[in-house]
């Protein structure tokens, strides 16, 4: 059998292992940590509070189902999820509250009722982003942007007419401010820049397609939480013969001539026909390919934002909160200027609160809730994260307490904090940047590292730091692209 070695067991690496196993490869996954998942891991705090450590939003679940179907399995035997009736609860400093229903009609009606924006105008906007998404997804998300045959595909015939409407020459914020005059709705739509760690005042209007995923397709919740995605896929991978080895960090990717020949760890050498790195692209080149020329222009692209996360066990329940909750800042432009220009944290940050015990009651004791509280922050460049954590914690408590009319700090019975330093140490994400490079210029998608390198045959890349980007769906699509690029083995179940 042809052999494949995958470096890292984040969601992209796990998905790649399944796709290569189906193609007939004998696959070994080498993981530096004690378990799989990368950022998609879980932990518990004293008192019985369970948390998903990283990703908290789940969209495009068919990309997970597809892996089971590809392997000849019934997805429902491994993994189940439900469509959420509400995407998020929104809170503004002026006291406005809005329930973002996961149904375009209901969302548009709520916007009209709470923000006095005509329902028909909101629906027309969502219809437009749906049309543009369907015209472009096959070209820009499902295929490599760095292969000629992508642009010779018939899918391009659907993409070309949509290009003038994609907002490539304007920013997200400018496009949203042109479409709507209510600053609260503009802020709500600008927020989607954070889904790939970018700044809506710099990122191209193309990112305004992201709301389509939630309002037209839907947001979902996996039974057992986000960690269940990784759990179910590892189970499938092992059934397909994939070997996972933990606490075995890769030290070097072995290259002979212009071909990857395997990897080296402290325990030995793994010879392979295909090597896939699920490690952030920066340490992949700097640490694992120290003698190979690196794509410096790509590696110098500005990093995405990171996160400062407070995990709190809360000793009461809040019926006005849902699974996803957003407490907006007063001045969004100032907040993003702090993150991307001043490289610090605003004194008035937007706060995201995720509470899985709303859907999985076992995640917290009866009458309690598990709060995953996140603030977008710059990636690590040597900031005083201890001081910034203390400052931000107080700002978060003040904002959320005011919005809810309850003093929250006294309700905290257990706590853990994850800073960009910790994210970098635990996941090898350079600087703790959650999505590799940001999308803060119109060419960012094309400057993101491809899923292969023309300089080293047999070497591929998956995960949030390479094309098509970060987040669960895009990491899964990076694995799909690699699965399509890697040559089939003679043992492929697809042959």
TrEMBL record:
<feature type="domain" description="Amine oxidase">
    <location>
        <begin position="11"/>
        <end position="480"/>
    </location>
</feature>
<dbReference type="Pfam" id="PF01593">
    <property type="entry name" value="Amino_oxidase"/>
</dbReference>
<dbReference type="InterPro" id="IPR002937">
    <property type="entry name" value="Amino_oxidase"/>
</dbReference>
<keyword id="KW-0125">Carotenoid biosynthesis</keyword>
<comment type="pathway">
    <text>Carotenoid biosynthesis.</text>
</comment>
<dbReference type="InterPro" id="IPR036188">
    <property type="entry name" value="FAD/NAD-bd_sf"/>
</dbReference>
<dbReference type="InterPro" id="IPR054840">
    <property type="entry name" value="hydcarot_desat_CrtD"/>
</dbReference>
<protein>
    <submittedName>
        <fullName>Phytoene desaturase family protein</fullName>
    </submittedName>
</protein>
<keyword id="KW-0560">Oxidoreductase</keyword>
<comment type="similarity">
    <text>Belongs to the carotenoid/retinoid oxidoreductase family.</text>
</comment>
<dbReference type="InterPro" id="IPR014105">
    <property type="entry name" value="Carotenoid/retinoid_OxRdtase"/>
</dbReference>
